[in-house]
Write a structure and sequence with these properties.
Layout (H helix, E strand, L loop, with lengths): L19 E5 L3 E6 L8 E6 L17 H14 L6 E6 L5 E7 L6 H12 L11 E9 L4 E8 L1 H13 L3 E7 H6 L7 E7 L3 E8 L2 E9 L4 H23 L5 E6 L8 H8 L5 E4 L19 H7 L4
Parallel strand pairs: 1-4, 4-8, 9-12, 12-13
Antiparallel strand pairs: 1-2, 2-3, 5-7, 6-7, 9-10, 10-11
Helix pairs in contact: 1-3
């Protein structure tokens, strides 16, 4: 099932994805829909009970699939979805994303995908032959192909897609949240991004349509150790930025959950402290368009990016 990166360009093109998106996390279901061209999206959040969804790459994720499906349906009804086809945004912890280099690659996807699967066999802790997989060519020349590949265990992808269908909708595109969030970036200049989830930190560096870094770091549950790992992860990404681009980054574009569950750049900067970076929101909270209370712990970056370039 080669669906995970469907139409997932770093800078989405117009008409590339459905105008409706749903992001699933252990906290709940965040839905968004674009009422029409150039109109402000409508957002809704439906909380999930504890342990209904466990975003783990090695275990069953949906412990209460009927509850998750109902939350999806309720959230989408709140945003008045005008299509049954939706973009599904998943936690970073259930998807593995790689930037791979090839000397050459067949132009046809049906010929390229087996080669990518072969490269990934020793890189992922699950059966890659039956995994959901897709790719995007980032750089192509006579001597180099640079490819962005995303892969998810087949049974886990099937769980999430089944919940969408049980809710009465169809998954038209599937993306991990940090990769989706990158579509919200419009700058051609290099951008350093950090997306903090409940269980992982993903750091990335984009430069136009090129992706120089994409790294997901699993985080410990202990609060002090978590903070140290987040600080270390951002410091490593900043050092990589300087090494690749010859200049220190000045700004960190932030998305996710900060200290105490707050998702603002200001709170995140205060929490991590000590890093010589100006922190700004990758996707600031909208002043209008919330059909329900979104809560301080809900980040909109992934779903904003998922809607970028929607039909």
């Amino acid at each position: 099932m080669d669906s995970i990166l469907k139409k997932a360009k770093l800078a989405a093109q117009s008409g590339g994805r459905p105008p409706v998106a749903v992001e699933l996390s252990s906290q709940g279901v965040l839905a968004a829909a674009s009422p029409g061209l150039d109109q402000t999206p409508v957002y809704a959040f439906e909380a999930l009970p504890p342990n209904a969804l466990n975003p783990d790459i090695a275990e069953k994720n949906l412990r209460a699939p009927e509850v998750v499906a109902k939350a999806i349906r309720v959230a989408l009804e709140q945003v008045s979805a005008r299509t049954r086809s939706i973009t599904l945004v998943l936690p970073d912890t259930v998807v593995r994303v790689f930037v791979l280099d090839f000397d050459s690659l067949p132009a046809k996807a049906e010929e390229a995908i087996p080669l990518i699967r072969f490269r990934l066999r020793k890189m992922v802790p699950f059966d890659v032959e039956h995994a959901g997989l897709s790719y995007q060519v980032l750089v192509q020349s006579k001597s180099e192909w640079k490819v962005l590949a995303a892969v998810i265990p087949g049974p886990i992808l099937q769980e999430y897609e089944a919940a969408i269908r049980q809710a009465g909708y169809e998954p038209g595109a599937v993306l991990p949240t940090s990769l989706a969030a990158l579509a919200a970036i419009h700058e051609e200049e290099p951008v350093l991004v950090a997306n903090l989830g409940e269980l992982a930190l993903t750091t990335s560096i984009t430069h136009g349509q090129d992706l120089l870094l994409y790294r997901t770091l699993d985080l410990p549950l202990d609060a002090n150790q978590r903070l140290q790992e987040v600080q270390r992860g951002i410091a490593v990404a900043a050092a990589y930025y300087e090494d690749k681009l010859g200049a220190r980054p000045q700004t960190l574009h932030y998305a996710g959950i900060g200290a105490g569950g707050n998702s603002t750049a200001e709170e995140f900067a205060r929490w991590i402290g000590g890093l010589d970076l100006s922190v700004t929101d990758l996707a600031p909270r909208p002043e209008t368009g919330a059909a329900t209370a979104l809560g301080n712990s809900v980040s909109l970056a992934g779903i904003v990016g998922a809607l970028a370039g929607a039909a």
